[in-house]
TrEMBL record:
Belongs to the ARG7 family. This is Uncharacterized protein. GO terms for biological process: response to auxin. It comes from the Eukaryota.
Length: 119
């Protein structure tokens, strides 16, 4: 059930040559990223990711920086395509919520790790 709900957050990747069964065509106007935001691809497997749009200011937050460091360890700097975050969508949504709770200002308020609740 949770997996089905998380899949609802996904959309077809831009320039993709296929559409998953049960998904509708994506209007190119909906693919555009709003000003002040960036699209990232979230998923543990390279071929099964969800496109999620996040505010640019999240990239300055220590928790998001930790996600980016993990992505660099997994994919390196020569990764082609968009920014891919190697974690479950539910974990990413948890990080987004925690960042939003701090106002996205980079103040972690003592939080040590984005994964601290999963170990």
């Amino acid at each position: 059930m949770l997996k089905h709900g998380a899949k609802g957050l996904c959309s077809v990747k831009p320039n993709s040559d296929y559409i998953r069964v049960g998904q509708e065509l994506v209007d190119p106007k909906q693919v555009a990223v709003p000003k002040g935001h960036l699209a990232v691809y979230v998923g543990e497997k390279k071929d099964d990711t969800c496109r999620i749009v996040v505010p640019v200011m999240f990239f300055n937050h220590p928790l998001f920086a930790e996600l980016l460091r993990e992505a660099e360890m997994v994919y390196g700097y020569n990764h082609s395509g968009g920014i891919q975050i190697p974690c479950r969508v539910s974990e990413f949504e948890n990080v987004k919520s925690r960042i939003a709770a701090t106002g996205g200002d980079g103040n972690c308020r003592g939080e040590l790790s984005w994964r601290q609740n999963y170990y």
